[in-house]
Amino acid sequence: MEKQQALALIERLSVQEFGLFPASLCAMIREKRAAEKLICALNNADTDGPLLTLLTRKPQAVFGGMALAADALGAEEKELYLPEYAANLEEALRAETQAAGITLRVGLVDVRENENNLICHIVTMANLGEKLQGKYVEGVYVSVNGGTLLKLPGETKLSSLAENVRAVQIGYALYSPEALEMTLAQAHPENGVIRAFTAEDCVIDAVQKQLFACKKQSCGKCVFCREGINQLEFLHREIIQGRGKAEALPLAQEIGQAMGFSCVCSLGLHAAELALSALKTVPAEYEAHIRHHNCPAHICKAFQKVYVIPQRCTGCTACMAACPADAMDGAKGYIHVVADFLCTRCGACIPACPESAIVKTAGAAPKLPDRMMRVGRFKGASGACGL
């Protein structure tokens, strides 16, 4: 299709860019008159990837949208980027992308290298393709708690998708429960992610895991992104492993703020946004971990203790055989004791004990034997408090 004809068609279809900077696709194309490539990708910050489902569910819409946008741009080259964690899709999509004249690449989009090219989100191209096919239905793509990607009406209240939460992640940031009063259109989850945190979830543990995913995905070329994500992930890992310090929180905030105006692409920007929003939304949870050495959700193993109730132990050695870390001390006929520095808190010993003598607790353990002692000779209190 001729360039002007394609541009006029896109203007008539009235498509908005879905990515980080929502704008008229037509206006974006006009702004990139010298572009040599059309690039289609997720945001670099997207480590969850529910929106990749569109490549297998609606490939012809995505590829048709790319073809029309490239015609309007006057670009000879079309590139589709897959994140490294979705590299397995490369083989599945190769035949279709080759037929559509699209080059498949795996990795992050180098924003600096492609500053003169047009970078569009996969959702933008899917919407354009569906409008071209006459199949477009208004709505917002969303995956709740890692579930199936759905397209729901924009007026859907978040409260209908999640309840009894103490924090909610919308896109790349955490919010207090009041955010559930927003509609999907207002929330606009940029990666399609809604994640509800209940009393059974540790927010800090979840943030550390997401920061670690960002760390793995980082290309490492930008100092603020590379070092910033490393530091934020390390500080959160120290907290969930019981080594967190109160003075680290202002440092994490300072690092996040510096990343916010120094990182080039969305990976560093949104990793910082995640950490900063968590610090703001659940300060009591950080305090519980750091000051009180307690994980309110009982998720973080550093704050758990496994011990043997001496009065119940018969010295059968079943727990010693079951322990993968060789953390049980004892012998036949002797009360067994957990070597705390070796114990991984996996809990494999608990069901192995025929006397139900082994307990995992988030509180303090009672007085326990401090030396090898025969079964039945320990005179301490017999109380037990398990998870």
Describe this structure in words.
With 387 residues, the chain is of the alpha/beta class. The protein is built from 14 helices and 13 strands. The longest helix is centred in the middle third of the chain and has 18 residues, at 223-240. The protein starts with a helix and ends in a 26-residue tail after the last strand.
Secondary-structure map with pairings?
Blueprint: H1 3-13, H2 25-31, E1 37-41, H3 53-57, H4 59-73, E2 77-82, H5 89-99, E3 102-106, E4 118-121, H6 122-133, E5 140-144, E6 150-152, E7 167-170, E8 173-175, H7 184-187, E9 193-197, H8 203-217, H9 223-240, H10 248-262, H11 266-281, H12 283-290, E10 305-308, H13 318-322, E11 328-329, E12 337-338, H14 349-352, E13 358-361
Parallel strand pairs: 1-2, 1-4, 2-3, 5-9
Antiparallel strand pairs: 5-6, 7-8, 7-9, 10-13, 11-12
Task: Provide tags for this entry.
13 strands; 13% strand; de novo design (two linked rop proteins); five-stranded mixed β-sheet; alpha/beta; 4 domains; 387 residues; four-stranded parallel β-sheet
What's the quick description here?
With 387 residues, the chain is an alpha/beta fold. The protein has helices spanning 3-13, 25-31, 53-57, 59-73, 89-99, 122-133, 184-187, 203-217, 223-240, 248-262, 266-281, 283-290, 318-322, 349-352; strands spanning 37-41, 77-82, 102-106, 118-121, 140-144, 150-152, 167-170, 173-175, 193-197, 305-308, 328-329, 337-338, 358-361.
